[in-house]
Automatic annotation (TrEMBL):
The keyword Cell membrane does not apply. The keyword Hydrolase applies. Pfam families: Hydrolase_4. Residues 48-253 form the Serine aminopeptidase S33 domain. This is Alpha/beta hydrolase. Gene3D superfamilies: alpha/beta hydrolase. SUPFAM superfamilies: alpha/beta-Hydrolases. GO terms for molecular function: hydrolase activity. It comes from the Bacteria. Keywords: Hydrolase. It comes from Acinetobacter halotolerans.
């Protein structure tokens, strides 16, 4: 890669303010046209060679400033990607999240790691939430000798669809096959309607984020996405080998509330935590699995006492495994 394109003078102030910076990463046109991703960073107050690279989930983008501040306080420079067709990176001609294969994201993950390396870091924690946890897990498995990646943190990774056994064994494979041939076909989504509602400060939560980039509902999902996820999950289900220590975190329970109530504030309402545990246990390597009592799907957006436990568990693990 041409290192002149990785210069720190390509950063501009980010929409989050408070010292956050971003740079736009450009890629060859794909099946929709122009493609970009966005790398966001927030540097620790003290010079450090340690960094974290965070990858968001489905219908999501990076806005979790408390998480970045926690890493900064622990001596990590914080980096996050808004993947192509999400958040800051979504262009007018693109369909949100439209991807045919999760390997498409390898380009921005690899370039982000190159930039982090050029910026004088030699230890990187690769982190991902939900779909980002699935993507990060496979990236780590596919790059076992990457010189920077020293650990993996998966926050409620999307290792299986939260559906019945029949739907997972027969329905999803059928939709995946259709999605391979007819990627633009849409199918009704079963995402829980209370999840984003439980988070946003103007609804029933405490966090501020762009509701166009992280909406309260997704009535349909493109079958291209089902195919891409199913293909990636099949590899996870066979069992992957990781050459780095991995911390897999999940809530202690899954609920599917039909109306607003306490379950929406103390549960994973998106994924089945039993699936996360099952497939984390199939991985080969130094794998730690931690259940977080009353955690939300994005554990770092849970209630304050819950996320304090998340960070305590995370940084204790990092102290043992990476520092």
């Amino acid at each position: 890669m041409n290192t002149t394109q990785l210069s720190s003078n390509l950063y501009t102030p980010d929409l989050l303010g408070d010292g956050y910076e971003q740079q736009v990463l450009n890629y060859p046109d794909d099946y929709e046209g122009q493609v970009v991703a966005t790398l966001i960073r927030k540097k620790s107050k003290q010079p450090t060679t340690k960094a974290v690279l965070y990858i968001h989930g489905f219908l999501d983008y990076f806005f979790q400033t408390e998480m970045a501040a926690q890493f900064n306080a622990q001596g990590y420079d914080f980096y996050a990607l808004d993947l192509r067709k999400y958040g800051r990176s979504k262009l007018a001609h693109q369909i949100f999240y439209n991807v045919l294969d999760l390997h498409e994201y390898d380009a921005e993950i690899s370039q982000a790691l190159d930039i982090i390396s050029q910026e004088k870091h030699d230890k990187v924690l690769l982190a991902g939430h939900s779909t980002g946890g699935l993507t990060a897990t496979l990236y780590a498995a596919h790059h076992p000798n990457h010189p920077l990646i020293k650990g993996l943190w998966a926050n409620s990774p999307f290792y299986d669809f939260n559906l019945s056994l029949v739907e997972r064994k027969f329905g999803i494979p059928m939709l995946s096959r259709i999605g391979k041939k007819l990627p633009k076909v849409k199918f009704p989504s079963q995402l829980n309607r209370w999840y984003t509602t439980s988070l946003h400060k103007d609804l029933k939560g405490e966090w501020d984020f762009n509701l166009e980039w992280k909406p309260t509902s997704a009535p349909t999902v493109q079958l291209s996405f089902v195919h891409a996820i199913h293909t990636a999950q099949k590899e996870i289900h066979r069992g992957v080998k990781l050459n780095i220590p991995a911390l897999i975190m999940h809530s202690h329970q899954t609920k599917n509330p039909k109306k607003w109530g306490v379950d929406a504030t103390q549960s994973d309402v998106i994924l089945d935590v039993k699936h996360i545990k099952k497939y984390a246990k199939k991985m080969k390597g130094d794998i730690s699995i931690v259940s977080i009592h009353n955690g939300l799907h994005d554990l770092v957006l849970s209630a304050l006492p819950v996320r304090k436990q998340v960070y305590q568990e995370l940084f204790q693990w990092l102290e043992q495994k990476i520092n």
